[in-house]
Amino acid sequence: MPLNADAETWLRFVLTPLSCRIRLKLLREFGSPQAVLESRVGRLQDMLEPKLAMMLADAGCRSEWAELASHLAWLSEPGNRLLTLADAAYPASLLDLPDAPAVLFIKGDPAWLSRPALALVGSRQATPQGLENAEAFASNLSQAGYTVISGMAAGIDAAAHTGGLAGAGSTVAVVGTGLDRVYPASNRQLAHRIVECGAMVSEFPLGYPPKAEHFPRRNRLIAALGLGCLVVEATLGSGSLITARQAADLGREVFAIPGSIHSPQSKGCHRLIKEGAKLVESAQDIHDELSAPLLPGLKPVALKQRNNEDPILLQMGWDPVDLDTLSTRTGTGADVLGAVLLTLELDGLIAVLPGGRYQRKG
């Protein structure tokens, strides 16, 4: 892409290690990154620690700077974009944050960041049913025109992006690393698809690794970009609960899918529901609550449910069950039951869990 004349100035500003709040404070005081960089060190020291003031002053005139050169080279590649607070395309929803990032690094089409969207998050160690629910909800919502926002993690996030790619609303991945990395590496192929049909976004410069402290910062962007936040599965200690609470603090709607009372992956959703999140059973429930203007001619569709009256499934119920327990319930020998369960698995009606257990899928 042709480089914006101000791109280098913004990069010099954000490649200096300052917090988002301090950057915003400097922009309010000086009016632009160029004015900040051209300011006298003495004036900068009125607002910053002396070491940071010196670093910022140096950033404005530094000539040999390999990190700056690598970012400018990255921006010259097709599909890469630097979106700044001064750009009209900067998503207005992020301005609700007290620590909105001064710039966003983007691979793909930045227009996806300003369309009606829903954040969809959940556990990395998701159950088969949770993965199916995430993909189905995301697909339904994307078909209706909502852009699905998630964090590119394994588990629910990856399923949400996959479902989002299936519809007209597509998907946006907000990541906790620089955009020259894909984390986890297992999502590399998914990342390529997202760049082609949606967008990947980061506030972190190139080269930033996947550190634990980066992900809460990523999560606040996920929460802010959506009209609401849907939690599919989460343990009580899940970072998804933090994202949901950040969304609530920003005035966004929070939704949660209930699950088995015995499943640790459902306890976080149940906690959110007790705290006021809206229990949802279909994508239609979410659209009814948001009532967002969507793409012309598209209507939300309810999550499809299988209607299967197989006696084995009826006896299985919805919680995980082992072979011996199911044999006792059904009065069927283990050998015969094993063959039936294999058929049900191949038909996509049940999932095999660790420890020799089985669970019915929705």
Examine the coordinates and then state which fold CATH places here, giving the name of the CATH topology of the largest domain: Rossmann fold
Task: Estimate percent helicity.
Answer: 40-55%
The ordered string of helix (H) and strand (E) elements is: HHHHHHEEEHEHEHEHEHEHEHHEHHEE
Separation of the first and last Cα atoms: 45 Å
Q: SS-based structural class?
A: alpha/beta
Short summary:
The chain is 43% helix and 13% strand. The chain has helices at 7-14, 20-30, 33-37, 41-45, 50-61, 66-75, 128-143, 156-165, 188-197, 214-225, 239-249, 264-274, 283-290, 311-316, 323-330, 334-346; strands at residues 80-84, 103-108, 117-121, 147-150, 171-174, 199-202, 228-231, 253-256, 278-279, 321-322, 350-353, 357-360. The longest helix is centred in the middle third of the chain and has 16 residues, at 128-143.
General description of the model:
- The chain is α/β, with parallel strands linked by helices and 362 residues long.
- The chain folds into three domains: 1-76, DNA polymerase, domain 1, CATH 1.10.150; 110-290, Rossmann fold (3-Layer(aba) Sandwich); 311-360, Orthogonal Bundle (Arc Repressor Mutant, subunit A).
- The chain is 43% helix and 13% strand.
- It has 16 helices and twelve strands.
- It has helices at residues 7-14, 20-30, 33-37, 41-45, 50-61, 66-75, 128-143, 156-165, 188-197, 214-225, 239-249, 264-274, 283-290, 311-316, 323-330, 334-346; strands at 80-84, 103-108, 117-121, 147-150, 171-174, 199-202, 228-231, 253-256, 278-279, 321-322, 350-353, 357-360.
- The strands form two sheets. It has a nine-stranded mixed β-sheet, sandwiched between helices. It has a three-stranded antiparallel β-sheet with strand order 10-12-11.
- A hairpin with a 3-residue loop joins strand 11 and strand 12 (357-360).
- Helix 7 (128-143) runs parallel beside helix 8, helix 8 (156-165) packs parallel to helix 9 and helix 10 crosses helix 11.
- The chain is elongated, with a radius of gyration of 24 Å.
- It starts with 6 loop residues before the first helix and ends with a strand.
